[in-house]
Write a structure and sequence with these properties.
Blueprint lengths: L2 H6 L1 H11 L4 H32 L4 H36 L5 H15 L5 H24 L11 H18 L6 H12 L7 H6 L3
Helix pairs in contact: 3-4, 4-5
Amino acid sequence: MNLVYLIQNWETVGNYLLYRLRKQHFLLAAIKGLRNGAVYGARIRAPHALVMVFLFGEGLFLEKLKTVFKLTRMHATNLAKFVFSYKLVHGLLAKLQNGQQQWHSFVAAFICGYFVFGENNGVNMQINLYLLSRVVVGLIKLAVEKEVIPQPKRAVFPWFAAAVWGIVLWLFEYHQGVLQNSLQSSMSYLYHDSNVWNDIRTFILQNK
């Protein structure tokens, strides 16, 4: 079976391999997870990085493109590695115990999260913070669902929004250094740069 045959008949060969490995479903699921993690990471990061780098980044055009590529590759690679390793560990735990247990998800993700997303860099920080906010909201909803805390009788979301914005602006104005660099940059543009202008051009047409 040569390379030309494999290229011309890749679907037939692929389907044959899937059939032969059908009993190793968790392994195939991990490989598919690797693929989906890479694709999803690239789709999410590339447009975001393109906009942020070209709007707020510094450097020449090619340097900005390299930055976009670097951020996209990091996001896609990390997500692919995490999904693959999580599904592999999760599948192995289920195989060892003849079935899935709830704690398998936590343990598998805990281990893989430490090794994949444990490095403190801008991409990992953003992903972890994105998840943190959703984890907190999800845990509160779960606590209400399990009747650990009572169902609120009044709208909670306005108070949630008020607390988030009150705290973040207080931190920005008086303890800016504790906030993430990208957030500092965005808020400086919105709340500090809008205090400064020299003429009508820098008042309406451009920031500085």
